[in-house]
Structures are given as structure tokens and as C-alpha cells.
Amino acid sequence: MKLLVKSFGCQMNKLDTALVTSALEDAGFSLTESVKEADVVLINTCSVREHAEQRVLSHMGHLKHIKESRPDLVVGVIGCMAQRLGDRLLEHEAVNIVCGPAEIPQIKELITEALKEKKKSLAVTKKIRRKAPDEKSQALEEFESAYGIEDESIPAQAFVRVMRGCNNFCSYCVVPYVRGPEVSRPPEAIIEQIKKLADHGVKQITLLGQTVNSYKYKKGEKTWSLADLLDAAGNIDGVEWLRFVTSYPSEEFFDEIMQVMAGSPRVCEYLHMPAQSGSDKILHAMNRNYTGAWYLELLDRARAIVPDVSIAGDFIVGFPGETEEDFQATVDMVEKARYKNAFIFKYSPRPGTASDKRLQDTVSAEVKQRRNVELLAVQEKISDELSRDFLGKQVKVLVEGLSKKPHLNSIEGGGNPQLVARTATDYIVVFNGPVSLAGQFSDVKITKTSPLTLFAERV
Ligand code: 5AD
Ligand code: SF4
Q1: 270-388 is classed in which CATH architecture?
Q2: Domain locations in the chain?
Q3: What separation in Å is there between the alpha carbon of 416 and the centre of ligand 1?
Q4: What is the pLDDT of residue 119?
Q5: N- to C-terminal Cα separation, the chain
Q6: What is the pLDDT of residues 101-141, one digit of tens each?
Q7: Whole-angstrom distance, CA of residue 74 vs CA of residue 24
Q8: What is the CATH number of domain 2-123?
Q9: Which of 2, 12, 416, 448 has its CA at 20 to 30 Å from residue 96's CA atom?
Q10: For the domain with range 149-268, which CATH number is right: 3.40.50.11810, 3.30.1330.10, 3.30.750.210, 3.40.50.850?
């Protein structure tokens, strides 16, 4: 049986895709990239913005068309849209299976049944905000540790989930409604998994959580924090680089985490900590529990402990009620924060969230677009300045593989293809070298810079 998996969305989703894929490979499926060959197509979906959902729906339209001539093709939808839309998605002509993120341990059975008998099946979590019954959490935990070692999409790198769900309820965000309440995984399960990964040759581990810095697990007398996890993981042989994403601006454990970063050569000096807005009024309406000034102080604290930490942020422009003045406060924050890079999104109302229920989407599409472009330009200038500091310097990078857009580089390769790599501080570096370097560390010298990419030569 041939399986095609298509994945949309964040790193959490990529991790789920990897888990489900390896579970199905274990069950005898082989992977294909061609719909023509596939017996089963699985789509892992994202609900964070409307645009993400539209892309999935258009893909499903395409599958519906294919199924007209191949009615036996089984189509399964997993991920956030599956949980959010449930039976409404199952009504789609193309779809056989709808399975929410907390139900993925059932995926093999669901597919086997769908292949045997042509019935539709729905597996979504009924009361998603309720703590899951023990047997369900147990099933997820077992699924995670059984299949969590196989992701080979980037050689020598792996993601390990440390927590599921989110309790923050930022007013614009659908995540708490589709991924459920915050649950931290037991530290011994996480450490065990990292050991296995290291034994398989993995060199870089990224710890994943929606608010990864709020990781908390009570074990006997001790409450484990992310700082404790990083400390323990940093002592595992073979793990050379450790990262964690995404951090929520919060005081709890913050100094401890930054101190582990300062003290452990293996914890990368990189922090992804979204601010979302620079305006206190908007932050309040977003239900983010801090002010712009406090957030900037937190960055100062991070830099006081780890002077070279590179910081990335996220912003939403055009949140309901965002005036020109509010937007200027965001511009101001971006100027002061000196991010390595910032991801900027236009507000997209999500059904069921507090901001969608209570607030009108007042900012026009044109204004959102203009603010998006303007903020990007402000950030680009800063990214460019920070990148220029690398000129002529030698840096250690971990090579990911062949560059996907090699034509953008003007540097001669001497017969070698262009590779893409990252520094510990998450800067993207491209240079020419043999493909065999994928998954290896390499020392390179930066010869040219641009806002988002550093160009280098091997030394
Ligand atoms: N509209 C626009 N952007 C959003 N994000 C989350 N929800 C929304 C939304 N409704 C952004 C936030 C978050 C990132 C993953 O996506 O900036 O940090
Ligand atoms: Fe969404 Fe806020 Fe939770 Fe992040 S912290 S997943 S933005 S609710």
C-alpha cells in the first residue's frame, strides 16, 4: 500500500506528520510523492489563519477531482482543522477520515478500516478543553515515544515535544481550542527519547512546546522546569546543539533558562519569543499579560545573561482596533528589540476565539497589508545590520542539505552544489560544498551578507 502525506503548518504539525508517517511505515505502508501512485492520502492541516485553511481546502478540491476517476483512494485529514471542523469536514466529498491531533494513535486502524469498507469515520476529541482520561494520555505518550525517532527530513536533526496544548488563550488564537490544555510530558520520557535520538546519530535536538518555557513537571519533591530539561539533555552524549521553541514572555523560570543557555556550550544562543504587538492597549486586548516596556526589559535581561543571544519575534498587524498610533508602538518595539528576524502576520479572525466573538475585524485588508510591508521593511534594515556583523568572520554551522534556491547565490561553487546550513544562533548560511556534508558540522567564513542569508566559503 502506498501512502502520500502532505503537511501544512508549524513545527508541532511537522512532528505529528513524522510520527504518523513512521507509524504507518511500520504498519507496512510505503511512501510516495505522487498522488497517482497513492492508495492513501493524508493531509495534516493548520487552522492558525484563514489562509492556511483555504490552502488545505483547495488541495481537497483537487483530491475530490481525482477521486472521480479513482473512488477507492482513501483521504484522511488530521491536525488542527480536523479537530476544529470535525463532521463538517467529513461531509466533504473527498474525505474518508477526520482525525484530531489528540487521536492520532488510532490512525492506523482508521485507515485500515477505510481501505476495507467504504465508510467515513470521525475521530475528534469531544471535550477538548477537558483533561484527557489517563488511558488517552497514555496512548499519546506511547505513540510519541514509539515513533519519535524516525524523522529524517533534515539529517542529524530532530524535534522532541516537551508539552502539548496551551492554556494562554491569547484572544486571537485557535490553538487552545484545537490542541487542548497544556500538558507537560514526563522528564524521563523526554530524556529517554533524546538518548535514543542521540544513539541514532542525531546532533541537534529542538524541544517543542506552544509555550515551551512554561514546561513544568512535578516529580517527587522536585518540579522540573525547561531549565532542568536543558541541563539534563545537555549532558547526553552525542547531543551537540539544543534548541527550544516557542517561548512566551513570562518571568517564570526565565533567568534559570537563560543561565543554562549561558552555562552550557550545547544550548544554542537563540530565543524565539513573540511580542505580537508593541501597543499596551492591543496587548491587553490580545490577552497577553505584559506591557511593551516590560517585554523589552525581559529582552534586556536575556541579553544581560547571554550577551550574544539572537532573538526572533512574531507580530500580528491589524488586530481589531489597532490605530496608526498603536502600529507606531509596534514599529518602535521592533526598532528597540533588534530581532534577528521577525515573523509578521496579518490578523485573521478565527471562529470561536474571544477576539472573533467580541471584536469586529475593523482594520481593512489594505491597511493590514501596508502595515505588514512597513514593519517588514523596518525589520529588514535591522536584520541587514546584524548580518553585516558577520562579514569576514568564521562560524560553525550545522548543514541541513542542498539549498532549495541555489540560483539566488552568485558565488561560484567549484563544482560543488550549494548547501544550506544554520549557525547556533539560527542564521541561515549558504555555501558550496559536497552533499556528504549534510548532517555534519562545518566551519565556514562569511564572505557576503543579506538580511536573511549569510553567504560563506568553507575553511
Ligand atoms: N491571525 C494572525 N496571526 C495569528 N497568529 C496566531 N493566531 C493568529 C491569527 N488569528 C500568529 C501569532 C503566532 C504565530 C504562530 O501565528 O503571531 O505567534
Ligand atoms: Fe496561541 Fe497564545 Fe497559546 Fe501561543 S501562547 S499558542 S499565541 S494562545
Answers
A1: 2-Layer Sandwich (3.30)
A2: 2-123, 149-268, 270-388, 394-458
A3: 39
A4: 85
A5: 47
A6: 999 999 999 999 999 988 899 999 998 888 888 888 899 99
A7: 14
A8: 3.40.50.12160
A9: 12
A10: 3.30.750.210
Nearest to 267 by CA among 296, 210, 318, 305: 305
Q: Residue 302 corresponds to which amino acid?
A: A
Ligand 1 pocket test, pick from 345, 355, 372, 376 with the greatest ligand atom count within 8 Å of Cβ, gives 345
How far does the centroid of ligand 2 lie from the alpha carbon of residue 66, in Å?
37
Q: Is the CB of 350 under 6 A from ligand 1?
A: yes
Distance 420 CA to ligand 2 centre (A): 30
pLDDT by residue (tens digit) across 322-381? 999 999 999 999 999 999 999 999 999 999 999 999 999 999 999 999 999 999 999 999
Cα(194) to centroid of ligand 1, in Å? 29
pTM above 0.90, yes or no: yes
Which residue has a Cα nearest atom 2 of ligand 2? 170
**Percentage of the residues of the chain whose pLDDT score is greater than 70:** 97
The mean per-residue pLDDT over the stretch 311-330 comes to 98
Residue nearest to atom 9 of ligand 1 (CA): 348
List b or e across 331-345, with b for residues whose CB sees 16 or more CB atoms inside 10 angstroms. Answer: bebbebbebbbbebb
Q: Whose CA is nearest to atom 13 of ligand 1?
A: 314
Task: Return the H-helix or E-strand segment holding 2.
Answer: strand 2-7
Distance 139 CA to ligand 2 centre (A): 25
Substitution candidate for ligand 1 out of 49, 178, 339 with most atoms within 8 A of CB: 49
φ, ψ (nearest 5 deg) of residue 77: -115, 125
State whether the beta carbon of 169 lies less than 6 angstroms from ligand 2: yes
Whether residue 343 has its Cβ less than 6 Å from ligand 2: no
Domain 394-458: which topology?
Answer: OB fold (Dihydrolipoamide Acetyltransferase, E2P) (2.40.50)
Atom of ligand 2 nearest to the CA of 174: 1
Q: Relative to the alpha carbon of 275, which ligand is closest?
A: 1
- Shortest-distance atom of ligand 1 to CA 355: 10
